[in-house]
């Protein structure tokens, strides 16, 4: 589950895995992140476990009032601590059972920041599509420009070089990662995931403007991952033929699978 979305907040156990300044862990506060009393203390690495009084396993109230503003300190001191040690757990507060879903993350991101227009029918169809969750999340992250590319990281972190590690000549952005095809072409991205007794296949087509034309998904009996990728690519070729697309680029992450295909022009693999 991503911890950088407003719907996620840690349930404190031993506090050993929660960063005081960068992780969401304080209920009743916007963004679930406490506000420091002075900006200087924000740069001090600190874990939530270091705010405990080791002798009583309660909050160290003196230290908390020294580090945080009044509202944050009051909120922290209201958080109950477990008597017996347990691991910290990241909870999804938008679900009564704390379970994360791509659909609820999408709705939360749309409500609190830029992203794809929720009224667009294709995005609504995405959440209903029988696609692997990782594919749905990838599409959503591309649409909301939250892929951790070098460009995005450089805007949030210091000393990050935005240069693309592949071409070395430009910056690595979402456009680089999800680049549209040339004018007059269609790009079809394929992927597959294997879980238990099921293989899930996903196919996405986009035009030269980077706009998603259509999304397809299907499930079949389980098979080796490489075989599932090959079936997904074959299905994508069949879709292109059915749609009568004459200039198509096929793209996926299974290089060994793509290298085996010899497509005749104007089809290409990328």
From TrEMBL:
Segments forming domain RNase H type-1: 189-259
GO terms for MF: nucleic acid binding; RNA-DNA hybrid ribonuclease activity
Species of origin: Lithocarpus litseifolius
Classification lineage: Eukaryota, Viridiplantae, Streptophyta, Embryophyta, Tracheophyta
Record's protein name: RNase H type-1 domain-containing protein
Domain Reverse transcriptase zinc-binding as annotated: residue spans: 100-173
Domain of life: Eukaryota
């Amino acid at each position: 589950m991503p911890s950088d979305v407003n719907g996620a907040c840690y349930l404190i156990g031993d506090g050993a895995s929660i960063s005081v300044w960068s992780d969401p862990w304080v209920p009743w506060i916007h963004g679930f992140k406490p506000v420091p009393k002075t900006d200087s203390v924000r740069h001090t690495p600190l874990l939530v476990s270091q705010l405990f009084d080791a002798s009583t396993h309660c909050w160290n109230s003196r230290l908390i009032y020294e580090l945080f503003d009044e509202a944050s300190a009051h909120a922290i001191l209201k958080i109950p601590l477990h008597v017996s040690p347990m691991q910290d757990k990241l909870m999804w507060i938008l679900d009564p059972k704390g379970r994360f879903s791509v659909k609820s993350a999408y709705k939360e991101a749309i409500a609190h920041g830029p992203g794809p227009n929720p009224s667009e029918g294709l995005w609504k169809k995405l959440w209903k599509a029988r696609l692997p969750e990782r594919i749905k999340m990838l599409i959503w992250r591309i649409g909301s420009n939250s892929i951790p590319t070098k460009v995005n990281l450089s805007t949030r972190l210091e000393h990050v070089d935005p240069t693309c590690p592949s071409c070395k000549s430009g910056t690595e952005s979402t456009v680089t990662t999800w680049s549209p095809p040339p004018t007059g072409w269609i790009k079809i991205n394929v992927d597959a995931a294997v879980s238990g007794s099921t293989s899930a296949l996903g196919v996405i087509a986009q035009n030269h403007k980077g706009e998603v034309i259509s999304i397809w998904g299907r499930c079949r009996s389980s098979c080796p991952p490489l075989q599932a990728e090959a079936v997904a690519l074959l299905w994508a070729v069949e879709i292109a033929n059915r749609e009568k697309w004459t200039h198509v680029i096929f793209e996926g992450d299974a290089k060994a699978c793509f290298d085996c295909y010899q497509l005749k022009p104007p089809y290409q693999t990328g």
